[in-house]
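quick one: FE2/S2 (inorganic) cluster bound model?
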Amino acid sequence: MFKIKMMPSETEVLLPAGVQLTELEHELREDNIPFGCKSGACGACVIEVLDGLANLNNKEEDEDEFLEMLGFSGPGFRLACQCQLNGAVTLRVAK
Ligand code: FES
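yep, here:
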């Protein structure tokens, strides 16, 4: 199990290795990630990874381009619905 820490509430959730961050949808009360399409198409779920970026799967080119189009450039921004968990991370909702 790996720890996901949500900021600014500091809420911590444990999820098993290899799951998608969409699993957080029913785990959080505060700092809940606003999932929409869950397929990388709507831009609702933008997060900023504050720590542990290497513990997520690599960002695909399509995801990177979409994030830039939404105004979120930089390696720390991800679409939560496109993230697979491989270690502990600290996140916050980006908007
Ligand atoms: S939920 Fe639509 S892009 Fe992530």
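The CA atoms of residues 40 and 62 lie 9 Å apart.
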